Amino acid sequence: DFGGDVAGRFALAEGDRTVAITFGDVVECSGPQRFGILSGDDLLLRIATEVPGVVRAVFAVQGVDGLLRSPPEDGVAQDLVEDWRPGDPFSGAHDAAVDVTG
Fold first, then answer.
1. In terms of Cα–Cα distance, which of 90, 96, 87 is closest to 75?
2. Over the stretch 2-12, which tens digit does the pLDDT of each residue have?
């Protein structure tokens, strides 16, 4: 969890078609940790749910095949999704102990 006024920071004026580009990063924290990782995934979730008018989100990543229907170790080449729509089937796995924010 992270604080901050995401809606205010990314709010757009009526008719503004700006595309916000964001990314995860190392951030300063209070307490003994002194720093942490702000995940781009967590940031996008907050933007998509807190900023009025958001209708699409795109993840651009380098070095991966794209969106897969299942984790790479469980799938085959045909599992690459070329056209995804809400409700399409997929299976997923997330290892919270491994942070992949670049």
1. 90
2. 678 888 888 88
